[in-house]
Design goal:
This is Cell division protein DivIC. This protein is an all-alpha fold and about 120 residues long. The protein has helices at about 10-90, 95-105.
Length: about 120
């Protein structure tokens, strides 16, 4: 047996409905405000994170560049030592004559030169 439910429409019911609508409206405003605050906080965390990531990438590039420069420095120091050693040796006349004869195939009159590649100075 169905029962019919009748809603009362008096002043108290109208006031309660109006109060409930007002509370719902205030809750929506508060939720909207909190949503905007949440979006702002997310943006405030994204920007520093992006800058941190860029700084890390720059650091990695600088480390790679540092290692390359370190290798280049090592190579150049070895070359400098070699060049200074050659310069010191070339001050000796007998070594300079041997070096010129071997490197540039200079010879004395009546001499024949046979070059052996492994024996040439570099």
């Amino acid at each position: 047996m169905p029962k019919n439910i009748v809603q009362l429409n008096n002043r108290f019911i109208q006031d309660e409905n109006q109060r409930r609508r007002y509370v719902d409206q205030e809750r929506r405003k508060r939720n909207r405000f909190m949503g905007w605050v949440l979006i702002l906080v997310i943006l405030l965390f994204i920007l520093p994170t992006y800058n941190l990531y860029q700084s890390y990438q720059t650091l990695l590039q600088r480390r790679e560049q540092y290692s390359k420069l370190k290798e280049k420095y090592q190579t150049l120091s070895e070359e400098k030592v070699y060049q200074s050693d050659i310069a010191t040796k070339l001050k000796d006349d007998s070594y300079a004559a041997k070096y010129a004869r071997a490197k540039y195939s200079f010879s004395k009159e009546g001499e024949y030169i046979y070059t052996i590649p492994d024996l040439l100075p570099q």
